[in-house]
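Adenylate kinase 3 (Polyodon spathula), 218 aa
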Amino acid sequence: IMVLRVIFRAVIMGPPGSGKGTVSERIVKSFGMKHLSSGDVLRTNMKAKTEVGLLVKSYIDQGQLVPDDVITRLILHDLKGLEQCSSLLDGFPRTVTQAECLDKVYKIDTVLNLNVPFEIIKERLTSRWTHPGSGRVYNTNFNPPKIPGLDDVTGEPLIQRNDDKPETVTRRLKSYETQTRPVLEYYRNKGVLETFTGTETNKIWPHIHTFLCSKTSG
């Protein structure tokens, strides 16, 4: 008997700190999808010093955005290896140009948009403090150090990574919004955008799970 396996392709979107990583892990676990993160792909290629990897590194070193065609080439190359599996794209497409290139090759079944209020994200990210020596991370809201500002194990001072400083977080959220709003619009017009709004991953997850069950069981 031939069993028809539905190949399902999804994209997950959401600002930095929206819980995308956690949700992606759960989707992969629950639905056996392959997770393809543009950040991982870039890092792997830079580490392996591939031709494209070196090109990417030269842009990043100059503080420039990696051009659409370079990113698209990389991601589509990796997606080729996943043609027989359901996949979850994360961090791509980031621009409408990238979305259009992707559409030419693959049909995207659904785009999951995590809509977490910026205020919540800001509070979440700016409350992270790190112990530089060990990489231990604290969160002043739900996992604070025993003594404020000091590492539990060594007693050394904690630092706030540049990425987690309020002004950096605000800048990252703003640029995410300007960059991705058109992409969300693009998918909304195609009728594949599903937005999940909430402040906590654990509360958003059941809705995503139910939605994906309804989509993939068809």
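The chain has a mean pLDDT of 91. The first strand starts at residue 9 and ends at 13. ok done for today
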